[in-house]
Design brief:
The protein folds into 2 domains: about 5-135 and about 260-285, Response regulator (Rossmann fold, 3-Layer(aba) Sandwich); about 140-255 and about 295-355, Rossmann fold (3-Layer(aba) Sandwich), CATH 3.40.50. The chain is about 35% helix and about 20% strand. The chain contains 10 helices and 17 strands. Strands 1-4-3-5-6-7-13-2 form an 8-stranded mixed beta sheet, with helices on both faces. The longest helix has 15 residues, at about 50-65. The protein is globular, with a radius of gyration of 20 Å. About 50% of the residues are buried.
Length: about 350
């Protein structure tokens, strides 16, 4: 097992956290800060510059907010029985709260069921029990905003998407981006290549090059590193990224990024656990409060910025672009006219939008 690193926990305000279910009763007692041990289980390395790095910034915020508690973490936890062993080790070491920064399903739920005195939270999870909750980001809104820019910037109308796995977060990201592009260019399409990894620079590089070779002049995706942005820079096409600001790897090609900020949420959750007020709910971190679009790239025209940001302003006021009729790739109507996909439907999106290819 990756060595457990003991780390000490800036007080940041929490906001925009939409509870999806009533709070479950909690019998977890308060903890003195100096007696607290909080464990974090990461899906990738904290140096990935992407998803895990953003979670690690949240851990740093926790240490700053609560300097007397201790934190431990393990990087690159596999999606296997080894995950169960690592989560059990957290409990054995005395952790009163375990934060898993990816979906580990039964691997974490089985441990939570056997440790009712420990609070568990799972990013991109699906289960809520007496001591297990989940949280996620509504990234589909930021993706739609960036999609508008893609539709305006792409000369061919052909967008390329470098995906990890054919899972709901990928469907939602790809579909929302294309839907945004189609709002300004109804003929826009998207080709998806999945590389079966979240962090694989060589695979992402090859996928990006293949998409450009096939005629795509705007690349986007959901990877934890900047490989396909480098491709876009070299091949003189546009690119949008995920997780954080990556413009330094392709300053001419960079359009924006779906940016994440878990720090306020982590500070809030751990503060609740210390006070004994923590509840195992389901939460979405919303647009402007945990997820957003990054500052626009230097070559994005002002007219494009303004048109995309007009949609963002409407979203912040409560407008949703995910209103039917919406059809899937086979032409079947999936969302009826006038019907709105709520966040739970978007979170569980499992079919490709009309115009998306390569995502089954």
């Amino acid at each position: 097992m990756t060595a457990l690193l003991t780390r000490r926990a800036t007080l940041l305000g929490a906001g925009g956290l939409a509870a999806l279910r009533p709070a479950a009763a909690s019998a977890l007692r308060p903890i003195r800060e100096q007696d607290a041990l909080i464990a974090f289980g990461h899906t990738g390395p904290v140096t990935d510059g992407g998803w895990t790095h953003q979670h690690d910034l949240g851990v740093e915020a926790v240490r700053a907010a609560f300097p007397r508690l201790k934190t431990i973490f393990v990087e690159s936890i596999p999606y296997s029985a080894d995950a169960t062993r690592i989560f059990r080790q957290f409990v054995a070491e005395g952790a009163q709260m375990v934060m898993a920064t990816s979906n580990y399903g039964d691997f974490i739920r089985d441990v939570a069921d056997r440790a009712p005195e420990v609070a568990f939270m799972e990013c991109d999870g699906r289960n809520v029990s007496g001591n297990l909750g989940w949280y996620y980001i509504t990234h589909w809104y930021a993706s739609y905003i960036i999609g508008i820019a893609a539709g305006l910037l792409s000369k061919s109308g052909r967008l390329g998407y470098v995906a990890s796995f054919p899972i709901s977060s990928v469907y939602a990201g790809a579909n929302a981006t294309l839907l945004g592009a189609q709002s300004v260019n109804p003929n826009a399409t998207m080709q998806v290549i999945s590389i079966n990894a979240w962090f694989d620079p060589q695979g992402a590089n090859q996928a990006g090059a293949a998409l450009v070779d096939s005629g795509c002049d705007f690349l986007c995706g959901i990877m934890d590193e900047p490989a396909y942005l480098r491709v876009a820079q070299e091949r003189h096409v546009w690119a949008a990224m995920w997780n954080t600001d990556m413009r330094r790897f392709g300053p001419d090609a960079y359009v924006s990024s779906v940016t994440l900020d878990f720090a306020p949420y982590y500070v809030q959750q751990i503060g609740d656990r210390l006070r004994g007020t923590w509840r195992p709910d389901a939460h979405f971190l919303t647009l402007g409060h945990g997820v957003d679009r990054d500052a626009w790239g230097r070559n994005v025209p002002e007219s494009v910025r303004m048109q995309a940001d007009a949609a963002r302003t409407k979203m912040l006021a409560g407008w949703s672009p995910f209103v039917g009729p919406i059809h899937d790739a086979s032409g079947r109507m999936r969302v009826a006219p006038g019907q709105t996909m709520d966040d739970m439907a978007l979170y569980s999106w499992d079919w490709p939008l009309r115009g998306v290819s390569g995502l089954a």
